[in-house]
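G., the chain you wanted modeled:
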Amino acid sequence: SELRVARRFQGGLRGEIDKIHEELQLAASVQREFLPRKLPQADTVDIQLYYRPAGYVSGDIYDVQKLDDHHLGFFVADAVGHGVPAALMTMVLLRSLTTTVPGPEGRTILPPGAVLENLNNEMILRHGDVPRFATAAYGIVDTRDRTVTIAGAGHPAPVVLGPDGTRAIETSGGLLGVFPEATFDEAEFVLQPDDMLIIYSDGFETAFPGDGADDYARRVPSNRYMHFFRQTAETWRADNLRAAMDELAGKLNAQSGSLHQIDDLTALVLVPARTTPLDRLFRGQAGKGAHAPKEPDHAQRIDQQTRAESR
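Predicted structure as tokens:
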């Protein structure tokens, strides 16, 4: 009789685990619906993404929007916490993200500082006595001259990796959801022909623990990721952006414990385009060219990364 009770208990427990598994899969599917299916591109700027949740769902979120004929807006945020609560917060962040407003001559583009101010106030208004916090970076690139304007809210400073060195784009601004009427300063710079801009989440601080690291050492933040970011930029200059991103993904997968990563990973990468509009038109007319493998669908890449992580 005790054996029957144990088996019945085991069967009930397995059923509950299967139910939780299905609910988490559904939550992951819903979250992916909030993500852009394809990143907008411009003739002068190329954009690629690395996005890998630590589990079924992610506390990281991103977006790239075409604001008008000459401006792209890009957004990376990290909800404080993990699991489903953090994932729900990311969906609120995306729904609350306002990048343009009606103006006398159509839509008016809001500057990055104002976008984060509005997002901060919206978070405080929505959550009242139950505080929810997030870090974020939002920027705009003028595709005519590659001028970038960016603001941050407690987020890791974006980095520009040039052939002569690396510089962090520092901005002042606290966490979203903390102080009403907080302000967020902006930084402005021009993305030079050999510069790579990376906006990333803090999961990278534990993504490269080093050989032989024990469980404790794997959880200690470090700046080892900067070495790999520099390698990514060097590969792009020598080859192309897709090859550079594939190399970064391969190095992340090769890390000890990569199948059970500690935190979500998101890296949005912007570089000057290496081809002109005429080059792209000619390439398209040429059909299957030997020099330009077709880019996979953006959403398909996300699904591939999510499936690989869950194995």
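Residues 285-301, 303-311 have pLDDT under 50 and may be disordered.

Shout if anything looks off.
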